[in-house]
């Protein structure tokens, strides 16, 4: 009797799950699939993760038509999936620059108005790093070759959304690292820089006296 009861309980649960899944809209399924990846990458690792659970991810923050026609002409054939405003920090002087991050089916682009400043093919992407604190810094690590100027340092308002979209499109979920204290990034020409994460009374990003990029 106990075995029969357990079997019936499992069958009932399975039917309830099946009914729930069939009732989901396509949009809701996509949301759940993305949130599962976000959980695998950030749960218990980064501040703000729990608060992000109730915030649905948008398909994109900017529409394709918001891109400059010259940029669209170059990348339209790659099937644009996601566009968002970002702040990019120069690898040397760490000056902040307003840019767009464009994710297509095959590559990530850092765009300045009508110019493509950097292209990273997903197949060559070496890693994605972010801190365990509540900042929106994302570092996209690229290979050491003549095609790339160095790793890309970005600050994103919707960091969980951006990293999730990027690692799903690139199929590089296992290459996302949530770091504590500091991280190293490639500047170019075999050189490296250091980024330090710390706590403070107000958020800021600046170059400290030792030449490091400090994120508060």
Automatic annotation (TrEMBL):
<dbReference type="Pfam" id="PF06017">
    <property type="entry name" value="Myosin_TH1"/>
</dbReference>
<feature type="domain" description="TH1">
    <location>
        <begin position="46"/>
        <end position="216"/>
    </location>
</feature>
<dbReference type="GO" id="GO:0003774">
    <property type="term" value="F:cytoskeletal motor activity"/>
</dbReference>
<dbReference type="GO" id="GO:0016459">
    <property type="term" value="C:myosin complex"/>
</dbReference>
<protein>
    <submittedName>
        <fullName>MYO1H protein</fullName>
    </submittedName>
</protein>
<dbReference type="InterPro" id="IPR010926">
    <property type="entry name" value="Myosin_TH1"/>
</dbReference>
